[in-house]
């Protein structure tokens, strides 16, 4: 049985999954101070493999429906959203008003990328 899902949905779901792995690969080691730099790099590379297993199909499925610039913009907005959740929930950091304004300006930029 083949699911016939809309290309935007497939693309966004794959990018969300990809960004969860990417964010953990890039920042998850910050809570593990016992890891050496080399250990953190090797673990991060291992996690990043799974990020690429989702990122590459997301871009291949989405390209043609979306331009490359639109795909990158979608990825950046998802990345900021995932990072905001990750940094508050996993790292215990607070996002401040200046972070919110900066993220909002990036989202505003995304609006202009998609505006015809």
Automatic annotation (TrEMBL):
InterPro entries: DUF486
Pfam families in the record: DMT_6 (PF04342)
Entry keywords, A to Z: Membrane, Transmembrane, Transmembrane helix
Record has Cell membrane as a keyword: no
Keyword check for Transmembrane: yes
Stretches that traverse the bilayer: 7-27, 33-54, 97-114
PANTHER family membership: DMT FAMILY PROTEIN (PTHR38482:SF1)
UniProt protein name: DMT family protein
Organism this protein belongs to: Mailhella massiliensis
